[in-house]
Amino acid sequence: QVELVESGGGLVQDGGSLTLSCVASGFTFSEYSMKWYRQAPGKEREFVVGIGSRECGHSIFYADSVKGRFTISRDNAKNTVYLHMNSLTPESTAIYFCSSNVFYGRGTPVTVSS
Predict the structure, then answer these.
(1) Which of 78, 89, 113, 114 measures 20 to 30 Å from 11, CA to CA?
(2) What DSSP state is assigned to residue 113?
(3) Residue 108: its pLDDT value, please?
(4) How many CB atoms lie within 10 A of CB 85?
């Protein structure tokens, strides 16, 4: 069965950086695009950034709100996708989820203090 397990969340100060990881299992990782979403308190879940499959050349696509501050990478040998977040703001506070196809992990919380 598909399993996505996020880690790396925590408390960080305004302007700080954090890298999240997501380990995938249950499918051929390199063949699927991977995405990160987030859900802030009281808000809908929103797309953050995605990275294409190996066949798609690992193309990257961003939400406008994170361009220039967040990026994504993947290690197909480790079945892992990463979310690199810089210049974090309190508005970045959310639970961050990784996703493949219709599957989501349980998320990892990120809190940015002002």
Answers:
(1) 78
(2) E
(3) 98
(4) 25
Q: Tell me the DSSP string of 3-45.
A: EEEEE--EEEETT--EEEEEEEESS-GGGS-EEEEEE-TTS--
Which residue bears the tokens 């998320």? 107
Q: The tokens 């991977």 sit on which residue?
A: 34
**Token couple for 71:** 């990026």
Tens of pLDDT along the chain (114 residues) come to: 999 999 999 999 999 999 999 999 999 999 999 999 999 999 999 999 999 988 888 899 999 999 999 999 999 999 999 999 999 999 999 999 999 989 999 999 999 999
- Give the C-alpha separation, 16 to 22, whole Å: 20
Going from the C-alpha of 30 to that of each of 70, 76, 82, 108, the distances in angstroms are: 22, 5, 14, 23
Q: Which residue has the tokens 């996505």?
A: 4
Query: Which residues, at least 6 apart from 50, have a Cβ–Cβ distance to it below 8 Å?
Result: 33, 34, 35, 36, 60, 61, 72
